[in-house]
Design a protein that fits this description.
The protein is an alpha/beta fold and 510 residues long. The protein has two domains: 243 residues, 3-Layer(aba) Sandwich (Rossmann fold), CATH 3.40.50; 236 residues, 3-Layer(aba) Sandwich (Rossmann fold). The longest helix has 18 residues. The protein binds adenosine-5'-triphosphate (ATP). Keywords: ATP-binding, Cell membrane, Membrane, Nucleotide-binding, Repeat, Sugar transport, Translocase, Transport.
Length: 510
């Protein structure tokens, strides 16, 4: 950790009584808050509490219905994200806005090449030099000439933040506002340390807001914390370290989170639901494992260990892979994901935006998609059944949506994730491959999802739970396989009364 002497500053960005509704949904009801240079302000709240809407209002993607934004002491109105960045407000998303096959320096000055152009020629040398200067100043040990692709995810995130600082300087702005929107959800613990260290190091350079569902991270990183509930600020805490996760959660919802404890597997069927032997494909090799009916097999490993590749390959029934894959004792034809669905497999990917959700479709259509997608011929899903299924899912998974016809793109991130899970539950899949299924889901909803998974396993559903969330994998799994460099390096049986510690699991992972 780097020690930084923090200077105190006047508020850089202020929201005053800001209000935003979407039709009947009051996403933000009269919120006022200050963001200051020298601090990281944590923003927490349940799924749908209004965090993303507030960030969109502060960064010009949404206009408030009423209320005002003050930047540097003057009332401001940004009519686009571009206008906000030109004033020095940057939002950093989980899905990085970087260009993979360009160099680090080119990414840092993306869309600002003009500053390095003379007589129509871009001076790469000056761009690299400027990037190196800023890296030196911020003690960033990265090569400006490296291709972005060669960097780890957390390093790319640092490049994105440096870009905000560098571009602000080009525009003559001394202190930008940096809005970190759930930046850690795709990071391993080691990468989180690296990222946090950098965020702390730039405290005096920018005013930073940090949104996360991981309350331990809020306690670890943030100097102040604002708790949102139903679009209002319900609490401002000047020292989050004085609180426990449980206390923060009770501020968020008005009750304390229950820690999930699981009953041991009761199913006594012995024919494996899934059996892999010598299973080899892109990103993993020689995998041998079994999952029994009603069993949760946790798959742990650092980012890049091959666990996500393995999960996807199982769902695709080993298309393009070698070795044995059996579902219920039979080797199915390796025909990809549609055939996987027909073999009663369900899959939640860790990239909900890339291969999960269809934002422009309703909740009910999103839920019935696999049924339609997997069919060999035309299929009729009655509108009534679709609506009933969606109504049930909304109730069971506590999806915050006005109704089954709501477009999924209009739901908060965590609620979109619940819609993805609902697909497979509705379809009655017997083997669920879940890759970080509670990514972006709040603590309360997580407990609901765990209860649902447990209910499914009691009905004989098997689960391959791939997760970077160690408490999740430890509390949900009957057995855990640990992967490293594409191979299974150990298998741990979990005794529900005395599960292994996180430290033991991490030691096996690295
Ligand atoms: N474009 C939109 N159209 C309609 N409703 C919307 C839209 N964007 C957000 N909402 C609604 O506004 C409310 C607040 O959503 P928001 O995305 O701000 O929550 P959040 O706190 O960021 O949640 P999460 O933690 O799940 O990301 C939710 O009820 C959501 O469904």
């Amino acid at each position: 950790m780097t020690d930084v002497i923090i200077e105190t500053h006047a508020p850089l960005l202020q929201a005053r009584d800001i209000v935003k509704s979407f039709g009947p949904v009051k996403a933000v009801r009269s919120i006022s808050l200050d963001v200051r240079v020298g601090e990281v302000l944590g923003l927490v709240g349940e799924n749908g509490a209004g965090k993303s809407t507030l960030l969109s209002l502060m960064s010009g993607t949404l206009a408030p219905d009423s209320g005002e934004l003050m930047f540097n002491g003057s009332t401001t109105q940004f009519d686009s994200y571009r206008a906000a960045t030109e004033s020095g407000i940057f939002r950093i998303f989980q899905h990085q806005a970087l260009v993979p096959n360009m160099t680090v320096a080119e990414n840092v000055y993306l869309a600002h090449e003009k500053a390095f152009t003379r007589f129509g020629i871009i001076s790469q040398r000056r761009m690299v030099q400027k990037t190196q200067e800023i890296f030196d100043e911020l003690s960033v040990d990265l090569d400006p000439t490296a291709e972005l692709d060669s960097l780890k995810f957390a390093e790319r995130q640092v490049v994105e933040i440096v870009r905000s600082l560098a571009q602000a300087r080009l525009l003559g702005i001394t202190h930008p506002v940096i809005l970190h929107d759930e930046p850690t959800s795709a990071l391993s613990r080691e990468q989180i340390e690296f990222f946090f260290d950098f965020v702390r190091r730039i405290k005096n350079q920018a005013a930073q807001v940090f949104v996360s569902h991981r309350l331990d991270e809020i306690i670890e990183l943030c100097d102040r914390m604002v708790v949102l509930k139903d679009g209002t600020v319900v609490s401002v805490q000047n020292d989050p370290t004085a609180l426990t996760e449980k206390e923060i959660h009770s501020l968020m919802v008005g009750r304390e989170a229950e820690r999930h404890t699981r009953a041991a597997r009761t199913n006594d069927e012995t024919e494996p639901r899934l059996e892999l032997s010598g299973f080899t494909g892109e990103g993993f090799s020689d995998i041998s494992l079994q999952i029994l009916p009603g069993e949760v097999l946790g798959v742990a490993g650092v980012v890049g260990s091959g666990k996500s590749d393995l999960g996807r390959a199982v769902f695709e029934l080993g298309q393009g892979a070698t070795g044995t894959l059996k579902v219920n004792g039979v080797e199915p034809a390796r025909q990809g994901s549609r055939a996987g669905i027909r073999s009663s497999l369900g899959y939640v990917s860790n990239e909900r935006h890339r291969d999960g959700i269809i934002a422009g479709m309703s909740v009910s259509h999103n839920i019935s998609l696999p049924e339609i997608g997997a069919a060999l011929g035309p299929v009729i899903v009655s509108g009534n059944r679709e609506t009933t299924n969606a109504d049930t899912a909304i109730k069971d998974l506590n999806i915050k949506a006005p109704g089954p016809d709501t477009l999924v793109g209009n739901l908060s991130g965590g609620n979109q994730q619940k819609v993805l899970l609902a697909r497979w539950i509705t379809l009655g899949s017997k083997l669920l491959v879940l890759d970080n299924p509670t990514n972006g889901v709040d603590v309360g909803a997580k407990a609901e999802i765990y209860r649902i998974i447990e209910g499914l396993t009691q009905q004989g559903v098997s689960v391959m739970l791939i997760s970077d969330d160690l408490p999740e994998i430890l509390s949900m799994s009957d057995r855990i396989v640990v992967m490293k460099d594409g191979k299974v390096t150990s298998t741990v049986a979990v005794d529900v009364t005395a599960p292994p510690s996180e430290v033991d699991l991490v030691a096996a992972m690295v």
